[in-house]
Amino acid sequence: MTLTPTPHTTDVLVIGWGLAGLVAAGEALAAGRRVVIVDQETRTDFGGQAWWSFGGLFFIDSPEQRRMGIRDSLELAREDWFGNAGFDRDEDAWPKRWAEAYLQFASGEKRAWLRERGVGFFPVVGWAERGGYGAIGPGNSVPRFHITWGTGPGILAPFIAAAEQGEREGRLTILARHRVTTLTTTDGAVTGASGEILESSATGRGEPSSRQVVGAFSVDAGATIISSGGIGGNHELVRAAWPSRLGTAPSHMLTGVPAYVDGSMQAVSAAAGAHLINGDRMWHYVEGITNWNPVWPSHGIRILPGPSSLWFDATGSRLPVPLFPGFDTLGTLAHLRQTGHDHSWFVTSRQIVEKEFALSGSEQNPDLTGKDLGLLVKSRLAKGPTGPVQAFLDEGEDFLVEDDLEALLTRMQQAPGGELLDIERVRREVIARDREIENDFTKDAQIGMLRSMRNYRGDKLIRTASPHRLQDPSAGPLIAVKLHVLTRKSLGGIETDLDGRALDSTGSVIPGLFAAGEASGFGGGGVHGYRALEGTFLGGCLFSGRQAGRAAAR
């Protein structure tokens, strides 16, 4: 049966109501334009992926950094970004321009622009992606990871408020359960979109919703912005794009984003002539743990680890220098994929878990998300793990807790996949590591690094445990954590110029079509290159959404 589309007309159409889409819509509203936002999910999911995020943002030479004694500069950040990105393709021309523009934004007005909107930041700056290869290699030379006070919901709040104000004033129309299947083109220009209306679905935030079609729609628009996210919730697309440089794709993965992050707009965009580039560049984590209280299928949570846990592959071989916890996400992923196995192990102590294990996600950090200073002091500075971490210790299937090393090794061997472990090798590594840590001198690079890291006040205060023997009874019990690959971000996407205008395969602008956020590789079709410095995904949504929204309004 052919359904008669419900028609709409607007100045600017935004496809996808995540952070980039909301920022773009807000810019268009501020310029006096009428805006329609469409999304395939229920209104419960307003804000998209960003709602679930930890809220990390990348700033350069911020007041928070200076107060912590961190000396940063645009020049140092540029060296880090380009050393990290490894741009090496002809199609990196626009991504490189986006990288330079984003660095200027992050060192300039980004923080003030957010502060004007009421966004605040936790005073202790985190040090993510530390690298370890040399001064011009991958990694952040200094701490740059600023946690938003309120985490992901805190970043979204001012942009959701602006959208809701526009809706009350009749200048913004929000169409939930509207899934775009076609971009409308007229004489080579994109003039809107059409698609299917899905049935109402009484699902909670992040939960999979019905795909039953009950109607059709069309939107005529002067400008159309694609801000539909990436492919992390679609394992089939992730495996299809998986590059050989990262080894073979895992047969088992956890999912770090809701199922609606399905990449469905990729084919729709390509059919309208948009040039998708760098699809083989992606960002997945290797510290994924099975969520004991899942919201979406195969729901995984990432451990944000400090540097002290011993890391073993599935066979019990210790990971090589500098693949320590928190140093090089993609390098560790590539190394572990070469082993032919889908999991790895942390061996650690309760004292390390208490100090060094944070969990990614707004829902896993109720103190920061709820802006509860009392709870924060109690949970972060008092003895014992945070409540969410303790819940995983109590309920998580990937956590094994024992009082002594032999009992722990037995439990590890009995766990699924544990038959691959060379228990004698793991035992020797733990004993040798404990022997080294009792000496002021060491040849163990990980021990040297964790001692060095405690020279930074932020790490010593809340992120790095006092060096100790894993088998020290006062630091126990011992803990093993089985780790999985966790899907997260697409680093490639629709190629755009610095105004967010979508380009075709010849490099020409497609009139009327724009892209922002993860759908555009956070700008240009791949602003991060091969690797991200962390704190740059939300920031990329902010910057690319702003650029596209302002240009579309013009």
From TrEMBL:
Fetch the InterPro entries from UniProt.
Answer: FAD-dep_OxRdtase_2_FAD-bd, FAD/NAD-bd_sf, KsdD_DH
Q: Where is the FAD-dependent oxidoreductase 2 FAD-binding domain?
A: 11-538
The taxonomic lineage of its organism, from the top, reads: Bacteria, Bacillati, Actinomycetota, Actinomycetes, Micrococcales
Which GO molecular function annotations are given, in alphabetical order?
oxidoreductase activity, acting on the CH-CH group of donors
The name this protein goes by in its record = FAD-binding dehydrogenase
Question: Record keywords: Metal-binding included?
Answer: no
Q: What keywords would UniProt list here?
A: Flavoprotein, Oxidoreductase
Q: Which organism is it from?
A: Microbacterium keratanolyticum
**KW Signal (keyword) present:** no
Pfam family membership, one: FAD_binding_2
